[in-house]
Structure formats: C-alpha cells, structure tokens
Amino acid sequence: MCQVFAGQDPERYASTTRRIRLNGQSTSIRLENAFWQVIDTIAENDGTTTPVFISKLHSEVLELRGEPVNFTSLLRCACLKFMEVSAHESQTAVAAE
C-alpha cells in the first residue's frame, strides 16, 4: 500500500511559489504541485483563472470568518473538499445509470 504513496513522482510533492493579488495586495503562495494542479482544475471548472479563483475564495472567507490564520492550509483543504465532492458526484452518477 505504501508503494502507491512512496512511489509517486517527486515532482508532485515539489513546491512551487506563485505570486497573486489578494484584495489588491501582491502576495506569494507556496504549495505542492499536486495542490496547484487541483486548484487549476477548480478554477477551470469555474470558467476562471487560478488567481481570480483564489482571490474570490479569499474574499468569501474574509466575509464569512474574517482573515484566515493559514490561507495555504485552507487552500489544501479546499482541494481535499473538491476531491471529496467530485468522488461523491461520480458515485451518484454511476448509481443513477
């Protein structure tokens, strides 16, 4: 079982820093490439760019809960949530067939 995890391409867990604007301020976000791939997919599914998606998410979190303590952790958890919802939708679609 661990071979599935240990054997993955190291490029997936290498980190990349991207610069974006949040509320008009330039900032850097550093995430593992696997998370960037998921965030890029979420943005594409929303018909927007990754920076616009991240900025919108940040604004919505500010409105709901105030400034997040760790925004990169929130992004990682957003990726997990997206994967959970996607898996559930796939299961529901298969069950309906």
Give an overview in words.
The chain is α+β, with helices and mostly antiparallel strands. Helices cover 66% and strands 16% of the residues. The chain contains five helices and two strands. It has helices at residues 2-6, 10-13, 33-45, 50-65, 71-96, and strands spanning 15-22, 25-32. The chain has a two-stranded antiparallel ribbon. The chain is globular and about 45 Å long. The N and C termini lie far apart (31 Å). The model has no long low-confidence stretch (mean pLDDT 92).
Pattern of helices and strands: HHEEHHH
Q: Give the overall shape.
A: globular
The SS-based structural class is alpha+beta
State the strand order across the main sheet: 1-2
Helix content: 55-70%
Count, helices: 5
Q: What distance separates the N and C termini? A: 31 Å
Total strands: the figure is 2
Strand content: 15-25%
Low-confidence stretches: none
Mean pLDDT: 92
Topology:
Elements: H1 2-6, H2 10-13, E1 15-22, E2 25-32, H3 33-45, H4 50-65, H5 71-96
Antiparallel strand pairs: 1-2
Helix pairs in contact: 3-4, 3-5
Short description:
The longest helix has 26 residues, at 71-96.
Q: Main attributes?
A:
97 residues, alpha+beta, globular
